């Protein structure tokens, strides 16, 4: 069994190297176009419809608007995020946005009062984010993320192609700066998440997101006061538990 897992890991690593080579020299939009060609029907995106999400979603709308976009509704989100999702989907013409939700049975068993985020935030993220996402990713080989190195922390060394939860993960904006993101919003007149103007440069669930002061680490308001910096727990294909990323 261990040998089989090892072979699977080797195949994943070979796939990541091949995809990285196939995308060499392309800009972010070119990366998305090429990936959609290579992995037609096996490619999706994951978006939080957060502070910077419109950039990658706009590029997807211009390259392959029927790409499945997975959106995690943890049932703990800001109302503004749900409204922003609807407005952005309509504006961009995305045709396959899939809203994921936690299993009712998991909520009843582990979070009947809805306060697990205070008692055990890792477990809360696990049942509200990680498990629904892993389930929804099952049909896909590659998923697109809008994460960037400038977010810092565990993202500071983010590569263009990585491996997570037994899938290839593509980060076309991995090396984009905040200034470049801003310029893209301006150039394409993209709407901003309404909470950005209220001091939220990074937006997650309502109980775990606070506004930050100008000039602070943009993710300082996520799980403020805790050592937690990312959404939850992930498992490698050999069963190793790792901190994951949103
Ligand atoms: S961010 Fe907070 S509320 Fe949302 S799933 Fe994680 S712990 Fe729960």
Structural summary, described in words:
This protein is of the alpha/beta class and 246 residues long. It has one domain: HUPs (Rossmann fold), CATH 3.40.50. It has 8 helices and 8 strands. The protein has a 6-stranded mixed beta sheet. Helix 2 crosses helix 3. The longest helix has 21 residues. The protein is globular and about 45 Å long. It binds iron/sulfur cluster (SF4).
What's the order of the H and E elements? HHEHEHEHHHEEEHEE
The assigned structural class equals alpha/beta
Count structural domains.
1
Assign the CATH architecture. Answer: 3-Layer(aba) Sandwich
Number of helices: 8
Largest sheet: 6 strands, mixed
Approximate helicity band: 25-40%
Number of strands: 8
Molecular shape = globular
Q: Kindly report the average pLDDT value.
A: 88
Biggest sheet strand order reads 3-2-1-4-6-5
Strand content: 5-15%
- CATH evolutionary superfamily: HUPs
Q: What is the CATH level 1 assignment?
A: Alpha Beta
Task: Report low-confidence residues grouped into runs of 5 or more.
Answer: 235-246
Oligomerization category of the chains in this entry: single chain
Using the CA coordinates, give the radius of gyration: 18 Å
CATH topology value: Rossmann fold
| Bound molecule kinds, no repeats | iron/sulfur cluster
Distance N to C terminus: 30 Å
Short description:
The chain is an alpha/beta fold and 246 residues long. It has 8 helices and 8 strands, in the order ααβαβαβαααβββαββ.
């Amino acid at each position: 069994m261990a040998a089989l897992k090892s072979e699977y890991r080797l195949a994943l690593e070979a796939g990541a190297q091949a995809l990285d080579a196939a995308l060499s020299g392309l800009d972010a939009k070119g990366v998305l176009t090429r990936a959609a060609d290579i992995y037609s029907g096996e490619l999706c995106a994951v978006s939080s419809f957060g502070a910077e999400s419109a950039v990658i979603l706009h590029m997807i709308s211009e390259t392959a608007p029927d790409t499945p976009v997975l959106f995690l509704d943890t049932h703990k989100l800001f109302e503004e995020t749900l409204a922003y999702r609807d407005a952005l989907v309509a504006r961009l013409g995305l045709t396959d946005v899939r809203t994921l939700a936690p299993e009712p049975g998991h909520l009843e068993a582990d979070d009947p009062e809805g306060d697990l985020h205070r008692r055990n935030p890792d477990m809360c993220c696990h049942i509200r984010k990680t498990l629904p996402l892993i389930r929804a990713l099952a049909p896909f080989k590659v998923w697109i993320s809008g994460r960037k190195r400038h977010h810092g922390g565990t993202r500071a060394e983010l590569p263009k192609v990585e491996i997570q939860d037994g899938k290839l993960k593509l980060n076309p904006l991995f090396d984009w700066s905040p200034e470049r993101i801003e310029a893209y919003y301006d150039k394409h007149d993209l709407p901003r998440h309404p909470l950005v103007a209220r001091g939220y440069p990074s937006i997650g669930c309502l109980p775990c997101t606070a506004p930050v002061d100008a000039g602070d680490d943009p993710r300082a308001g996520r799980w403020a006061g805790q050592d937690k910096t990312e959404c939850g727990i992930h498992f490698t294909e050999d069963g190793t538990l790792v901190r994951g990323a949103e």
